[in-house]
Design a protein that fits this description.
Layout: E1 3-7, E2 14-18, E3 24-33, H1 38-41, E4 45-50, E5 53-58, E6 68-72, E7 80-86, E8 94-102, E9 113-119, E10 125-138, E11 149-157
Antiparallel strand pairs: 1-2, 3-8, 4-5, 4-9, 6-7, 7-8, 9-10, 10-11
């Protein structure tokens, strides 16, 4: 475990802090799709919206069986949004997860609404899910030490 000394801001002297990192954001599961959906998923467009800010990406290629692939959204928005495509389930299911991550905890507020839409190349909807989240704030190194992170701890499907 790393320990770093830093000055506490109230003049009480030196305060030792561990150097445990954390991330701010949300993890969302769009769903698991059977192997038979491979033709519909290849070339599909996934759109992720946080409140009214949206970005999208095209799933150009699915990962091979027993592998994971990451697709980044085309719009360079913060927080960073990654779409994870996973084919590691022994049944052959293709799982789609969304990771929303930022270095800035202030991006994540209670009541934020996340919407994920998946459409095939013809524009037909394959899946759509929306969640309202509650966030928890935590400081893994103690309240007087950095970093401060906020993660979606509760998700209510809309």
């Amino acid at each position: 475990m790393l320990i770093a000394a830093g000055r506490h801001g109230d003049g009480n002297g030196v305060h030792a802090c561990t150097q445990i990192g954390c991330w701010s954001g949300a993890e969302l599961e769009l769903g698991a799709f059977p192997e038979s959906d491979v033709p519909r998923l290849t070339g599909a467009r996934v759109e992720v919206c946080i409140n009214s800010t949206c970005g999208d990406a095209v799933i150009a290629m699915l990962p091979p069986p027993n592998d994971v692939k990451t697709v980044r959204l085309s719009q360079p928005i913060d927080p960073r949004i990654e779409v994870l495509l996973s084919r590691t389930d022994p049944s052959g299911l293709i799982e789609i997860e969304i990771n929303v991550v930022s270095e800035l905890p202030e991006w994540f507020e209670d009541g934020d609404v996340y919407t994920v839409t998946l459409e095939d190349t013809g524009g037909a909807r394959i899946a759509k899910r929306a969640w309202s989240v509650t966030c928890r704030t935590f400081t893994p190194n103690g309240s007087r030490c950095e970093p401060t992170c906020r993660q979606a701890s509760g998700k209510n499907e809309l």
